[in-house]
Specification:
Length: 196
């Protein structure tokens, strides 16, 4: 667990072995099979989780349509953030797309860590900043880029997800109609060479 946590935290903050041990002692290792709903709309989010293994999606319903706002793989944070930090009922659903292992902190455990030191409080600010930046990047991609640009940027940044995530979920995440997604995906295939 410690190696995964250090890989996530080290670019932001250097924790001593003692500080890391204090964090590990308060974390829960949670395992879930594929297609498990971790939270539903109206429920209270109890955890802030780092994905150690597997893949999840975070979404809400707009009418009958699912709108995916996050695809979280290894090394990503996932939570119904407003519910977790503000104590509000969740507006989101979080579901596993693969078997997952999560390293999770409860709100109480996080507050306990904050009380231990200023460095832990700084770590918390960095985590919240990371969640905020992820949200803003998603919004920027949906507002600033046309469909083809959104698709191409995503494929170049996350080529592995094309194989791991069902196409209908990728289309929802990118706010692209499934048939448009299929057409764009078709353009990725290499053209056969013409023999002369």
């Amino acid at each position: 667990m410690e190696a995964v946590l250090r890989q996530f935290l080290d670019p932001h903050i250097q924790l001593s072995n003692e500080e890391m041990s204090a964090m590990v002692a308060r974390m829960e290792v949670r395992h879930f099979p594929r297609r498990t709903m971790l939270i539903r709309e109206g429920e209270q989010e109890k955890y802030l989780s780092l994905v150690a293994k597997g893949l999840l999606r975070k979404f809400f319903y707009k009418g009958k349509q699912e709108v995916i706002t996050q695809l979280a793989g290894e090394g990503a944070l996932i939570s119904s953030s407003v519910s977790f930090f503000a104590g509000n009922p969740s507006q989101y659903y979080i579901e596993t797309l693969e078997p997952v292992t999560l390293f999770s902190l409860s709100r109480e455990a996080l507050e306990d860590l904050y009380a231990k030191s200023h460095k832990m409080q700084r770590m918390g600010r960095l985590i919240i900043t990371e969640l905020y930046l992820d949200k803003e990047r998603w919004e920027q991609h949906h507002i600033c880029y046309d469909v083809k640009t959104r698709f191409m940027k995503f494929i170049h940044q996350h080529p592995d997800l094309l194989k791991r995530v069902p196409q209908k979920y990728l289309a929802s995440y990118l706010n692209i109609k499934p048939e448009t997604f299929s057409r764009l995906k078709h353009h990725l295939k290499p053209k056969p060479e013409v023999l002369v």
